[in-house]
Amino acid sequence: MLDLIGKKILISGASSGIGRECAIFCSKIGATLIIIGRDKSRLQNTLDSLSGKNHIQLLLDITDFESLESVISKAIENIGKIDGFLHCAGIESTVPLRSMNAKKYRELFSVNTISALELSRIISKKKNINPNGASFIFISSVMGILGASGKVGYCSSKSALISASKAMAVELAPKKIRVNCVLPGMVETEMTKKMILELPTESAKEIKTKHPLGYGETIDIANLCAFLLSDLSKWITGTELVIDGGYSCQ
Predict the structure, then answer these.
(1) Which domain covers residue 153, as residue numbers?
(2) Positive or negative, the Cα torsion across 199, 87, 148, 152?
(3) Residue 249, domain member (yes or no)
(4) CATH number of the domain residue 218 falls in
(5) C-alpha dihedral (142, 143, 146, 152), degrees to nearest 10
């Protein structure tokens, strides 16, 4: 049976979308959580929706790399050593190559990639991690293995997570830490709904048609992440799991 009873899980990007759904579902099946977000009211809303007790919320910018370690380590001291880390924080960008610049690339990589690596470094320290093992999951994207016009920056940042997870899986295996990537297709969240509204009608229809099973729901991703965080997946590491309603089959 799938459960996370007794596990301490840290989730970034928990104030909305996939991160929020993952937090709620993980709490329902027994996890105690550290949830991270930048929006105070939304993060509080997530906290209020959690089952169980003793959860911790951290209102912070995960790209503030100078203060990240002290804040995270203090929270772990209070909740106990970590059994799982789920990086859901991310930003989307559809900008043609001619309009990209170093600033835009830095913003994408800081949120989507570097913060995941920094959080992994901090959490995997001996003082912070469960010595019996843990599971790290990065929410990448099917765009991390495919290409699309206007997605050079976004695809690059999500693809980097996949490569990083493989290297990290090998390096952290002696600590019994598993590292995997989840690659969603189009999932209905506030961020993706806003993106779709900004597209021409025909382009929006085309994207939906390319998902044979239709758009995904946040609970679809939460189900998979909970499995990867649980002991049921104890022999899975260094891989990417595509969950895209058939998008990449075509």
Answers:
(1) 8-240
(2) positive
(3) no
(4) 3.40.50.720
(5) -170
**Residue 116 contacts residue 164 (beta carbons within 8 Å):** yes
Identify whether 20 is part of a domain: yes
Comparing CA positions, the residue from 240, 243, 22, 116 lying closest to residue 9 is 22
pTM above 0.90, yes or no: yes
Which strands form 177-184's sheet, in the order they lie side by side? 56-59, 32-37, 8-12, 84-87, 134-139, 177-184, 240-243
Tokens describing residue 117: 């690596």
Q: Which amino acid is at 85?
A: F
Closest-CA residue to 2 (of 232, 236, 192): 232
Choosing from 105, 154, 215, 247, the catalytic residue is: 154
User: pLDDT tens, 75-121?
Assistant: 999 999 999 999 999 998 889 999 999 999 999 999 999 999 999 99
**Annotation says 154 is catalytic:** yes
